Amino acid sequence: MLNYLQRVYRMAKSKIFYPYILFLSLTVISLSGCVYLAHLDEAMFMKSLKDSQGEMQVELKKEEKLYNKLKTDIDRGRLNHLTGKRRIFSLYGEPALCRPAEGQAGIKETCIYRNPAGGLLSEVILLNLDGQERLYSWQIQDSGK
Question: How far is it, in rounded angstroms, from Cα 111 to Cα 95?
């Protein structure tokens, strides 16, 4: 081991060793840059995927907060029958679905709000609107049943 270190020391003292270090350093730097450029598209895709997942999480939390606000307002009796469709949408966000009501007297349209974090089996809130697009009635249903 000592002989090896002595040889390396002698090579370092001589002028021949420095070009090898420079060549080796430049080779490593250039090859690592080529590898990076070869996978740049994949790296940028992964970054955009991460960014979009962050945006989706923010949107999901926002929608969940609006759903909880709607449920709380129903539970506390704050939602009255004169509330218009536009006002409901501005207070609680867009519903998951609005569909025409069939065969229900006085009800023209039913808007469905679903807890976004609850999945398909979460409870839903049905807001029934009359012909003047005002709140007619509401229901809270457990869709797991």
Answer: 6
